[in-house]
Queue: 3 jobs
Job 1
Amino acid sequence: MTVSPVASGVDEQQQPRRLQRSVLTFRDALGLGVVGLRGRRGRALLTSVGIAIGIAAIVAVIGISASSKANVLAVLDQLGTNYLTVTPGQSLAGDDTPQLPPDSVGRLSLLDHVQSVAATAHLDVIVRRSDQMPPTNTRGTVVLAAEPDLLTTLNGHLRSGHWLAAGPRSYPTVVIGATAARRQGVDLAAGDQLLWIGDQWFAVVGVLDAMPLAPELDNAALISTEVATQKFGYQGSPTTVYLRASPADMDGVRDVAAATADPTSPQEVDVTRPSDALEARAATDTAFTTLLLGLGGVALLVGGVGIANVMVISVLERRNEIGVRRALGATRRHIRTQFLVEALVQAALGGVAGVALGTAITVGYGLSMDWPIEVPFAGLAGGVLAALVVGGLAGLYPASRAARLEPAQAVRPI
């Protein structure tokens, strides 16, 4: 049986009221964190900048590395990995062998699983933009005799114009590489273009796109083998043979290519696979990326130390605020949460800004290099997450220090 306060002679209003427990919701904690940062905007901004720099470095490195890898894979997909070059090596005496035998192309084309073969030959001829220029002003451009199916074998493309016509012509023509066109100032869109090769004019009929698997052609002036024979006494001995083979039989073709090109001196023939060089470059880029990621991590660590330093100073400056809040019923957990949220908000602002800046750097660099833009979503999410982790760890000690302050001690002058 329960007795009511009235029946027992006790006034209900005279009974002590039960104190309500202080509650700090997530929304309240976030609001307190933002208000705390707004009270010292300059210091919070500089701290966030430190985090932003570290995150931007990490995101940019990941994005540029991914874009570079995507570019390499795109090149390999376009040009293929079933491609070999056969060039003269060194003799047993250590001297460079200048040329391959004249019939090396024909023998290589007879190998099983070889799909196409084409060759170029270096000509001892000077090329200039004008006959009025001194002979030394070649701007690094070399003259090569090229076979008609060279472009098909290399899966190459013309930026403008057309490829060399088969058969000798009364008016010699030339196709130049992408680098040679830039150095020689050749632009077919501006009208007819001429080059002075040897002691006569050649009409430029085409400009090649960049050739990643045959970079030696980028700075070359290519003339047909028929014109080279007629004008410069070319004897038919190539200096480079390009061949494509069935992808499944590349190793077998590579093993016999040297002996097939020069049966009398196979040890003086070099056989290389240009795609291996691209893959090695990609591996080098990966190692360099790891180094840059480490530097970005150091910058992020410095930003975290900055947050910890700012938060410790903030605790010392806001002792009175902490004491008043504790006296009004805020628990240690509430104080700890407040300062931890402030650290996380600073880190989040820096993380978002860093992700935006890193993405912009990646896009700008990729466009300047004409690469496909590749910004992994995992890198973006990881950047923000890394900022939050660093901010959380940096804010733990200041938040715990603030929570340990007793109300009476907090409001006491230092």
Job 2
Amino acid sequence: MNTVSSAQSPLTGQGPGSLDLSKNLAMVFGTPVAVHQWPDSEAVNAELGTLVLAREAGEGGVQHSNVGGWHSKSDFFSWDADCVRTVRERVVRMVMEMTRVTMAEQIGDRKLDFGLKGWANVNRDRSYNLVHNHPNHVWSGTYYVATGDPDTDDRFNGRLELLDPRNGVGLFGIGGYSTGARCLVDPLPGAMVVFPSWLNHQVHPFHGTGGRISIAFNVQIQEVSDPARV
């Protein structure tokens, strides 16, 4: 096998015959993921935390990907509270922008209808979520309300991990090469993460006191027919 020393490698970008592909390189089959920290969320999160914990105390949860913890019914956006309406507005704004920037063609005068489904989660000590995805939707995401009080410095403690969809991507590599790196999201209060619903993800076990509270959501998108354009 032929080898190339570092002095000869085009990775240095130096010397005669070196290539500059910065204007000719495309990251094909990329996966759009966005995390946005919503400002001024303390009051909203305090109201959400009180509301979610009251619901947890008053009604049984459901079982989906969660192991332990509490998972509400998927009717969160119908709860009658200002904090719920604030989260709904934030979800709509974020998924509209995600849709706009990722569409192959400009939306223009096309009309899109966004259907939302949401639920609250409370993960307590040793609770976690199995690897899963959300079929029959376009976008999925999570809004973080409270992190609880972790009692370990484990970097995976209570964090969301988005799993690389490319089979075999981690079978080989070189130091400093980003392909195959793990994607972990910190559950910081006020942060919202949005990703394609087909993307497998999991929540690592939470170790600590208190509750790790989040609002998860799915988004369906349909184009609305305009009779005037038919």
Job 3
Amino acid sequence: MAKSHYVPKTDDGKVTWLNNFSSKLPDHASVLGLSPEQITSVQNDAAMFSYIVNLVNSFKTGLAERVGYKDLLKNGAENSPLGPAPVYNNTPAPTVVPAGIFVRISKLIMTIKGNPNYTEAIGNNLGIIGSEENIEFSELKPVINIKMEAGYPKLIWKKGKADSIDIYVDRSDGKGFVYLANDSSPDFVDKASLNGNEKTAAWVYKAIYRVKDEQVGLFSDDVSVTVKKEIT
């Protein structure tokens, strides 16, 4: 089991989450040792983020109407009824806050969770505990693509939920697949040279994910590439 993050991915979801966090945080301020300034900062962040997301949404919702009005105004038949002109949002902006709202919130939550008085009940109330997510490591299978880059094979892969990947290669030398490398940062370039007098060779690669110190899941499908010796 792994914990998914508690902050929603969408902006609208973030507004709801941050408003809940902001409104309930004062209830736990004394227990968690939070200052009035920290509470005010969170409340200002929530107000400003909610304001700007709602403002953007209002522009999106009214865009077609405003464009239609503009087109009718520009090219409509003479004496066509226009109706009242669209108006700008007259809601005053809240206190402007520094950039990085969720960077600040993440640091505050780390402080909250490090407080000896923090409990799971507080975490649930503030919405800062992620839901459990099943990760079936036994079913993980890397997908490997390959292309030549500056004369060397480049293995293109995605890390996903794994920590790294073990790569094996068959260089058509009768040895079959042998361990090549562990790569934790995609992508991987194989800078080996052709053997002896070989001018070309077909190299085949496969890989398997690794989580911590264990290989997990299934080997990728084999991928092959023709390597050519540079002529100098």
